[in-house]
Write a structure and sequence with these properties.
The complex is a heterodimer of chains A (316) and B (263).
Chain A lengths: L10 E3 L2 E3 L3 E3 L8 H9 L4 E3 L16 E3 L4 E3 L8 H15 L6 E5 L4 H12 L5 E5 L6 H4 L7 H11 L7 E5 L6 H10 L4 E4 L3 E4 L1 E2 L4 E2 L5 E5 L4 H14 L6 E4 L5 H10 L3 E4 L2 H5 L3 H15 L17
Parallel strand pairs in A: 3-4, 3-16, 4-7, 7-8, 8-9, 9-10, 10-15, 15-16
Antiparallel strand pairs in A: 1-2, 5-6, 6-14, 11-14, 12-13
Helix pairs in contact in A: 1-2, 2-3, 3-5, 5-6, 6-7, 7-8, 8-10
Chain B lengths: L27 E10 L4 E6 L11 E5 L5 E9 L2 E6 L3 H6 L7 E8 L11 E6 L6 H10 L5 E6 L8 H7 L3 E5 L6 E2 L2 H10 L5 E5 L2 H14 L3 E4 L15 E2 L2 E2 H4 L2 E4 L3
Parallel strand pairs in B: 7-8, 7-11, 8-9, 9-10, 11-12
Antiparallel strand pairs in B: 1-2, 1-6, 2-5, 3-4, 3-6, 4-5, 12-15, 13-14
Helix pairs in contact in B: 4-5
The chains are: A alpha/beta (316), B alpha/beta (263).
Chain lengths: 316, 263
């Protein structure tokens, strides 16, 4: 894409270089090596695979998603082929992504800290660039109970189990619906996490009033899209205040424009997740957001992302 | 900082993949106006609404609260009409519905068929794949083309949709694998013969993947364009979940109709 030579939008996650700060968020298009490659070719600077668990899982029956006006709500239910097959999928994705210079982020979930460690060990055989722990999916309560991200002790227990087996930068994806996301972030970093991804979707529900039934088969789901952007900005801002400055945050939540990406970067993210924007902008979303980000930087005289990252934290 | 007053690019969000019209967001309830029994396992539901933006080859997501939601191609858009084969628990449940019952619908989604440059298109339906082709024939007739329909089925009782083409004055070739109705054999053999005679200049196909692959081969052999609709189970229908992937394409937004050669 056309980029003025003097503007550099590459970014860095624990030594992993991203050509652009836009990260394909987990759960969007990440179900196969071909789709991960497709996202990279569409302009993602890194791609996150859909979360994999210990065993193959079918996920919830349709309806799994709805466009309720100010955002989306989804409860897909973590369908995945299981860790063994996921390792093959990731290995193939790695091959396809390498010539493109786009890093691969593996995402995993499990029911116990020990299972997390076992799934991590399996998927790491595929040599992803980064491992992300999905401890915050809001849509599998029936099978897994309260997400680990709901408490400091829960979140820390998973990091402590995975850290010894993890050979790549370890990111933890946090939930927004907690009283103090900054403290949870600080605790998982103290426990050995290398970075934070925030936020997962925000729990919600939409009821069809003609039938008097929740639209999603899972009844509740996770909100995404424009509606949750201010929630994400506030969470990223609080996390940035709570963790050491060198620990990177992948900010995720409601980014559909370049201006949105700027806002999350100013809140303290060093990379920006993109998911629902594929619906709001079409498959060109990554390119469109990148073009708008560069236009903003050009208009404001910024030459690199470090000029805007955490800008909102400067003293008055 | 320089140039602080340059406005941030003002991007309104039309929701690129959100369908136009009243059914573009949440599923909306629609009354069933008529039900036609096509054969032992296929029924056509005529709904009490229109979907004026919809084009042939597109699909809707139909939801029955408390049961499930699944994709169905449009048989017609005025009134909105769905031809549904009972192939599993959810479609079996749909077949229990009666006139005046409600069905919840969102859409239309996906890439439609588009008229090719020629004038003698071949419309090929395998089994219940014939469902959206009469709507396509209407559109092609409006473009002053002379479509010919090919209906392939396993046996005579699986042949549906003949009357829809006859009502439009579109000639129909019927094939059955056991020879109980029309020509014996595969529908693709009948299509191959027509192409060999130089009597077709585009292929439109809906049906099992094997039939579509055979049509793709014919299209390449005879250097005619083909538009093939790949049936898939859709999850989100809006390009996000990845469930409908086929050969690296998201069939819900980059299909279900795919053109050969790709454009």
């Amino acid at each position: 894409m056309p980029m003025p030579a003097e503007i550099d939008i590459s970014t860095d996650l624990c030594g992993v270089r991203l050509p652009t700060p836009l990260v394909l968020a987990s759960g969007i298009l990440g179900t196969s090596a071909t789709l991960l490659e497709k996202a990279a070719r569409l302009g993602a600077g890194a791609v996150t695979a859909k979360s994999a668990g210990p065993q193959p899982r079918k996920g919830h029956a349709n309806p799994i998603i709805a466009d309720w006006g100010a955002g989306l709500i989804n409860a897909v239910g973590l369908p995945n082929p299981g860790a063994h097959h996921e390792a093959q999928l990731l290995a193939e994705a790695r091959q396809r992504l390498r010539p493109l210079g786009v890093p691969l982020i593996a995402s995993i979930f499990a029911g116990t800290p020990d299972e997390f460690a076992e799934v991590a060990r399996l998927v790491l055989q595929a040599s992803p660039d980064i491992l992300e722990l999905n401890i915050s999916c809001p849509n599998v309560h029936d099978d897994y109970g309260e997400p680990f991200a709901a408490s400091c002790t829960g979140a820390v227990s998973v990091v402590e189990a995975v850290r010894p087996v993890c050979t790549v930068p370890l990111f933890v994806k946090l939930a927004p619906n907690v009283p103090n996301i900054g403290r949870i972030a600080a605790d998982v970093v103290a426990a050995g996490a290398d970075g934070i991804t925030a936020i997962n979707t925000m729990p919600g529900m939409v009821i069809d009033i003609e039938s008097g039934r929740p639209i999603l088969t899972n009844k509740s789901g996770g909100l995404s899209g424009p509606a949750i952007k201010p929630i994400a900005v506030r969470c990223i801002y609080e996390i940035r205040q709570a963790i050491p400055p060198h620990v990177p945050i992948i900010g995720t939540g409601g980014v559909t424009t370049g201006a949105d990406a700027v806002e999350l970067l100013m809140a303290g993210a060093v990379a920006v997740g993109v998911g629902s924007a594929v619906y709001y902008r079409g498959l060109d979303a990554f390119r469109a957001i990148t073009t708008e980000l560069i236009a903003f930087m050009q208009a404001h005289g910024h030459r690199r992302l470090s000029d805007i990252i955490s800008l909102a934290h400067r003293p008055a | 900082m320089t140039n602080m007053h340059t406005p941030i690019p003002n991007v309104s969000l039309p929701a690129a993949l959100r369908p136009k019209g009243a059914f573009g967001q949440l599923p909306r309830p629609v009354r069933i106006r008529e039900i036609h029994v096509e054969n032992y396992r296929i029924r056509t539901f005529i709904l009490d609404t229109e979907m004026p933006h919809a084009e042939p080859g597109q699909f809707v997501m139909a939801w029955l609260p408390g049961y499930e939601e699944a994709p169905f191609s449009l048989a017609f858009h005025r009134p909105l009409t769905l031809t549904i084969a009972a192939v599993g628990p959810f479609t079996n449940t749909l077949h229990q519905l009666n006139v005046d019952d409600m069905l919840w619908v969102r859409g239309p989604y996906g890439r439609s068929f588009t008229p090719e440059a020629g004038t003698r298109p071949l419309l090929v339906g395998g089994g219940y794949g014939v469902a959206p082709l009469a709507f396509l024939a209407e559109t092609l007739l409006a473009h002053e083309q002379q479509p010919q329909a090919f209906i392939g089925a396993r046996t005579a009782e699986d042949v549906i949709g003949v009357g829809r083409f006859e009502a439009l004055g579109v000639p129909v070739v019927i094939t059955t694998e056991d020879g109980t109705r029309g020509r014996r054999g595969l529908v693709t053999e009948a299509v191959a013969d027509i192409l060999a005679e130089g009597k077709g200049d585009a292929i439109y196909g809906v049906g099992p993947h094997g039939m579509l692959q055979a049509l793709a081969t014919l299209a390449r052999t005879w250097h005619v364009p083909a538009q093939l609709s790949w049936e898939a189970y859709m999850g989100c229908a809006i390009g996000l979940c990845g469930m409908c992937e086929h050969d690296g394409a998201l069939l819900c937004v980059e299909g279900p109709v795919r053109r050969i050669p790709s454009t």
